[in-house]
What does this fold into?
Amino acid sequence: MQIIGEKINGTRKRVAQAIAERDADFIKSLALRQVEAGSAWLDVNAGTPPDREPDDLVWLIETIQPVIDIPLCLDSANLKALQTAVEVVDKTPLINSISGEPERLKGVLPLIAKHDCQVIALAMDEKKIPETSERRLEIIGRVLAETRAAGVPDEHVYCDPLALTLATNADSAVVAFQTMHAIKKHFPAVHLTIGLSNISFGLPARKYVNRTFLTLAMQAGLDSAILDPLDRDMQAAILATELVLGRDEHCLNYVRASRAGAFDEKGQKA
Amino acid sequence: MQIIGEKINGTRKRVAQAIAERDADFIKSLALRQVEAGSAWLDVNAGTPPDREPDDLVWLIETIQPVIDIPLCLDSANLKALQTAVEVVDKTPLINSISGEPERLKGVLPLIAKHDCQVIALAMDEKKIPETSERRLEIIGRVLAETRAAGVPDEHVYCDPLALTLATNADSAVVAFQTMHAIKKHFPAVHLTIGLSNISFGLPARKYVNRTFLTLAMQAGLDSAILDPLDRDMQAAILATELVLGRDEHCLNYVRASRAGAFDEKGQKA
It folds into this structure.
């Protein structure tokens, strides 16, 4: 499981403040802690109005880059911000995101192809998220036709089946799992990713829902996720799921993580 | 998910002491708490030497029965103890267990058929547990040929695919899931159950392994399990898994359990 660390996001109040005040220490520390927690990418979302976003995104990138050794995930709906950001990154970034929306594809795909980026592809269409896995697969099929035509290899595409909250649709997780199975069946080379926390929006005791959804999604083939890498409970769920699914030979990672204090002490008792 | 409450087991020191001292209050309280936590059956295992086991089992049953309103799961390898116990139970019990062992089947099956009991069938043979799901399915097939011949309907059989510890075999959970899928495919009317805690024997941070295994086993069709119903973490995993798998309409059980304090407060934050 590859983690896309989600914490540097300007829609979060404390991060917005740090961006406004150019508080580099806060941002650097948030970046470092996520890297130390095992992130494969750091998501960077300025979350500021379109006219300020390019500058803010560049400031974030130039603040973070000197202290980390992993690539960034550039998270923006703003083509200009992405174009500016791609020019200042040290490592080839993951782009978050494209969808079946033609305008968006037309704008972002050339950038992705030119810089050989990886990209997250959402199973939605002009802001509409289909209810069934068949329709979501259809959209992913259309997006992949476009990425292939642009010269982006399937291995660079991270498909997000989309998880709506269970609070309004009891089948929402099941549809996400079905979509994952369908995508992997039809497009075996692509990756699967997901923005994890939507699934529990509006529900109480969200962490139990999130970690359970993650476990079942990993079984369905999820190989990366946008989540909070500083959430010990989530990290414990990933380690335990890899162990149970037979992906942790001789239990080495699990036992090592336990010795390093990754689990709550209460966990030591069965 | 139907829970078989596991706590009244004489192989546990405190329970052994209560049995030896005929401490009815302790046993009654342990029974009541498990019922209040939502058990569908209470497992009763005297765990004493064969000559004492019938008396001890009858004492346990007669102590527990007046204070509970659910059936018992009679857990004994001792035919005489089972024969004696079946005569004193108020409600038709679940018998724990039979396997592919011919001697055991010959002894216990007539009892099960005569009293219309439900029964747990282990996917093992004369104390040997096959490594592959194919061989485990084969054993379950042989056991079901015998239960059918004895007049026991498939719906009364709870098949346990067996979970060996991941500490010695990284594929142990995966083999259990494969066995579950195979059993449900070939024998759709039977139930699936499991003794949960074996999976993490010898590992650190066992609760994370147990709850993750439970989540994935429920996805594979598990509809009951022998576990500690007083373990809040396990109950939270069951509630969250039923929610995520779309088996909790309008999230009613989950939200209700949250209001009743079923989750750790920490869980309220996503």
